[in-house]
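Operator note (shift B, R.M.): manual run for (Fe-S)-binding protein requested after the automated queue skipped it. Running by hand, logging everything below so the morning shift can see what happened. Input copied straight from the record, untouched. If output looks odd, do not overwrite the archive copy; leave it for review.
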Amino acid sequence: MATCLCDAFFDDVAVATVQVLEYLGVEVGFPADQTCCGQPAFNAGDWKASRKVVRHVVDTFKGEDPVVVPSGSCAAMLFHGALLEFENEPDLSEVKQLANRSWELLDYIVNGLGVREWPGSFPHRVSFHRSCHLRGTCSGPAAMNLMKSIDGLELATFGEAEQCCGFGGAFSVSHPNISARMGELKLEHIIAANPEYLVAADMGCLLHLGGIVDKSGIELPRLHVAQVLRDALVSANLLPAA
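Run finished. Output pasted below as returned.
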């Protein structure tokens, strides 16, 4: 599931996700009818509208295959939020079935496929932003451990790493000033660590922090973890260069 943000802003993240999974021997299917996971309406409190979207997701991804999502927040919606929406309905079987086979990408690679080390090199200093939706899941440690195994990659830790970046989906629209200030505070800590790249596994955070960075004129390129993994494979000639 590529997510709305891949479709609108981060098409290369979707491409990198497919490349990484295919390198690992995974046969990737892409249902053409997929849309949103339903989280924007869910977070805004419009559960009725969100249920319609989730029902479409359930219908679109019917079957038994794992549903792999390159976004912590969208993955969390599939295996947590969707169940909350339908908790009072008598038949939850299809929603539960989708929730039980939905994976965030890095969690799937490390804990689903058993990959513990990554080939190639990425000779850069990076700061990894662990988004709110990765906390309490296996995805954050999975991403960190894979990146640590890449030759030349240096992880630059920063202060108050557990603080939210301020995006929060609809929160950034309904409370833009608070959202922007939270993002600025986050970036102050990240920039102090002097990374060459800001890396995350959630594109909402990258979009939000990237907007603040670009508006401020700061030079701080952003990458999804899937792009780092893909670029490491390219460095080892395990994938052709774009």
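Quick read of the result: The mean pLDDT is 93. Residues 4-112 form one domain.
Leaving this for review. - R.M.
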